[in-house]
Amino acid sequence: FNGNLIISGAFGLFKKDVVVAAGGYDRDTLGEDMELVVRLHRFCKNNEIPYTICYEPNAVCWSQVPESLGDLKKQRRRWHLGLFQSMAKHRVMFLNPSYGWLGMVSYLYYFLYELISPFIQLAGWLTMVASVAVGVMNLDFMIQFYLMYTLYNAVLTITIFFQRIYTMGLKISLSDTAKAVIVCILENVFFRLFLDGVRVMAFIGYGKRKSQWGRIKRVKQKGV
């Protein structure tokens, strides 16, 4: 139902005339790709212009990823502030029935599960630790619950990964398979909590750093 609020800048293809008519890229946001998509939604809805967001599964695109935790931190900080800036700028769409599913469902989803979710998750962790400290929660129960939670999420992530490999007819080596399993486990026991912290800390000093992109080291790719 054209409910996507973000199309990656590295993998998106737009009609130039509509982008120009809507005002082009916004240089005052850290998430210019998301801001453009949300603004195109708003522009088309306000001007009653019919449109469709299409997905091309066979497209091949290459993009560089962070090579260190420091660069990953800078990237995710920028992403989260860009999300906040885009949603704040177009907040008129939030729960606005005039924008249909986009305003009533998509915007609400991104607000709850993307923008404020790290605050909720970290608050949950702090609550559990405090509950154990004051004797309200049983430590053994908390450890068992955490292990079950981590195992469930790891199995879910691994299943989705290999389902994608199967449906696309890809072949990966045994070593890459082992790496994928390890990364899926680390994603649940380390990276998720780490990135939640990064997204929460992103708002510290926001007034002075709201326009700081954050330089990421570029590594020359081989065989691309």
TrEMBL record:
SUPFAM superfamilies: Nucleotide-diphospho-sugar transferases. Keywords: Glycosyltransferase, Membrane, Transferase, Transmembrane, Transmembrane helix. Residues 5-129 form the Glycosyltransferase 2-like domain. GO terms for molecular function: glycosyltransferase activity. It comes from the Bacteria. The keyword Transmembrane helix applies. The chain crosses the membrane at residues 94-113, 146-166. This is Glycosyltransferase family 2 protein. Belongs to the glycosyltransferase 2 family. Coiled coil: none annotated. InterPro entries: Glyco_trans_2-like (IPR001173), Nucleotide-diphossugar_trans (IPR029044). PANTHER family: POLY-BETA-1,6-N-ACETYL-D-GLUCOSAMINE SYNTHASE. It comes from Candidatus Allocopromorpha excrementipullorum.
